[in-house]
Amino acid sequence: MEAIALPDRQNHIHRKGEAPFAIRCNSDSLAGAVSQRACVFCGSRVVLYPIADALHLVHGPIGCAVYTWDIRGALSSGPELHRLSFSTDLQELDVIFGGEKKLYRALMELIERHAPKAAFVYSTCIVGIIGDDLDAVCRQVEEETGIPVIPVRSEGFKGNKRAGYQAACDAMARLIGTGDTAGISRFSVNILGDFNLAGEIWMIRDYYRQMGVEVVANITGDGRVEHLRRAHGAALNVVQCSGSTMQLADMMEKKYGTPSLRVSYFGIEDMSEALYDIARFFMKKYPDDPEAAAIMERTRELVRREVAALLPQLEEYRRALSGRKAAIYVGGSFKAFSLVKAFRLVEMDVVLVGSQTGTPEDYAELAAITDPGTIIVDDANPLELTSFLKEKGVDVFVGGVKERPIAYKLGIGFCDHNHERKEALAGFTGMLNFAREVYSSVMSPVWRFVPGRADSGHSVTT
Amino acid sequence: MGKKTPDFISTTNACKLCRPLGACLAFKGMEGTVPYLHGSQGCATYMRRYIISHYNEPIDIASSSLSEKHAVYGGGPNLKLGLTNVAKKYRPQMIGIATTCLTETIGDDVAMYLEEYRRDTEGSVGLPDLVHVATPSYAGTHMEGFHGAVRQVLARKAEGGPGNRTINLLPGFVSSADYRYLKEIMADFGLDCTMLPDLSETMDGPARLEYEKIPAGGTPLAAIGAMGRARATIEFGRTLGEQEGGGSLLTERFGIINHRLGLPMGIRETDRFFSLLAELSGRPMPAKYRDERGRLVDAYVDGHKYVFGRRAIIYGEEDLVVGLCALLAEMGIRPVLCASGGTSGRLAEGVAAVSGDILAEQPQVHEGMDFFEISDMAEELAPDLIVGHSKGYPLARRLDIPLIRVGFPIHDRVGGQRILHLGYRGAQQLFDTVTNALIARKQDESPVGYSYM
Ligand code: SF4
Ligand code: SF4
Question: Of the candidates B299, B11, B207, which has an alpha carbon nearest to the alpha carbon of residue A103?
């Protein structure tokens, strides 16, 4: 039989229990392997995009901008400048003679037209090649317009998405510390690494409000430039999806002494733990403060109420889904941890889990929490995923848009857990939505018509 | 007319896509072919995502996955490694290589790399054929990419020799349903036809027992080879440049006569297509199509009062805009703006050719437009509907008027690949869709709540 993976890809795949844990990752994608990864620019764009009152100008040819136009469900409660796709749309002459002039004029034009609170200027691959001095242009425009104009070093070929996260954090670091922190509560946090897909950050903020904790800045879901500027006034950084904003938290710790907590909002277990961790943090920080104790009390009450409401509703799904097999392929592996636990809650078996950009520590953790036989894969491609899904007889596949047709062509259920989804999957309600999403795909009657899955005896000879 | 008005520097919400995307789509319509982008990884992934959201079909586009050092030292080694890996895993008949902005800017000589690669691998069995098209996005749109790929494939594969009876059909970029319908029409006229490309099955495939690494369908490569010996070529595209499509290449190399037509949309453009087929086949129009045409005329009559004088904005690829203008104008709708992100310089001419004798007043025609500019003009034009792909939805929503979804991409509905645009049958469906949208609007707005309209 032909090997599933190319020789150069084989050490990116680990089957738990078959050998001591080892996996190659965090390396450039193999040419011709059809990676599911995007680029540095994509990483930066994901992180900064939800800042809704900033101008996001993509400096480059048109494709990079047009493929990222309003493709993510990051909601805003106010301005929606982030949903427009701005590009310098470089033409041949710009490539030959340099794009600085065009960039300058485009920035001036757009800032005048939209009066944004700040501007982010993303560089794409060819900008890195033609050598435009982004810093100089940004500085000049900043001087002339009086708003922060921040270059984002996101040339696509400089690595993968993770490098893009770093570039985005560097860009945000330029805003933080420039605002007034007066009036911020002792019991305050910044939310890092939630992008308000389908309004998730509003749910999370509401939990914090109920606990009595103030949110200073959303980083970056439903984000605002003003809030970022004063983010250093918060007592704590609560960091989700560690890959994307951890660097910013580290930077703030160094520069402003802001401690940080890593949390996940997916699944009952992780969601509850996140809230408790925050309450515990304040108990520890202000041991004799009655308000800290009151926060803990309110947190207990909140979790108790939410879980009590949720569990009975989850029961119906658990009964239907118990024993079914799930596969996970996501961008960052931190999310995969929570998904493994969430599936466990409805008694489903995770048989395949992978990510585009996991680190060795991430994969070691995945290997630790999954069952023997589980396939763990880094930077997979359609053909590998197809083989694994078939081999394992999976019932539902969790991934993003690029994984969806793979599942459907194999006659397998699918749940979108990427940035484009329109269903809130975070928080307590999110766990219920997640179970319902999985349920509504797995239990659909359509599978009985799919060739090869006509195991239900309903197939018709055609 | 060919210029933007007013002249903005920046582009907001572009009404065009990048050039290699068009090339990849064209390659997807060739049998056993894997599209390959010579550039960095991101471009390929973004394009896959964009295409998948329309077709809901797998589309594997390989990439050289260049990183910074390759950008400095040249992408040749990665290109060759990538080709070998694709050949190994997919066992394709052909790999269609398109360049990207990056590799065009660093000046990678892909043709030379491919020559070296062919030399290095000479004698190995089962190696795919390699075709290459230059697609820098800083010049042209996805449509130039699409036509460029078709032309390059013909340049590489078409061979002369004793003539055959086949007709070459080069439809350009249309829906999977359109490609299927075109094949049906050609067969009903009894014409042997090679259609290039053919995305009818590859991007709208049935559920099958086995997962196919490369979906079945597409123009057979042997048939592409034989296109150099065909009787005639039919090529759609009123805005296509003289040297752009595959048709002129076949004329230059093999002396094959090229019939350039507009996309057969609406009665008159379709009549032109069918008369040509009648002439080429020596047969009258089959009864099936005579009846389709008759029913269409009947429907036009039945519905004309609902649509007459309504104002429409049309946007999208230039040839599609021309075809839509032909169709809407003959229904009695008044196109007020025809806009495209393309810059062929021939859009106004195309619009005038298909609607000049019907419309009392010509629409405004603008190339190089983005949605900011279209929206800007829309305020004054006070349209009753807009016609184009999904990306016009924010505009339709703001103006609170119907959006008639046609073309690519359809990202907010299912079945974009099954929208039929061409021929009498396509006109029938679009007529019904447009008319019903306007009726529904009137019904919804009526305080009475009629259940008959
Ligand atoms: S760099 Fe060029 S080819 Fe790549 S996405 Fe951008 S416009 Fe398209
Ligand atoms: S050109 Fe570079 S930045 Fe743009 S999509 Fe491609 S890899 Fe990403």
Answer: B11
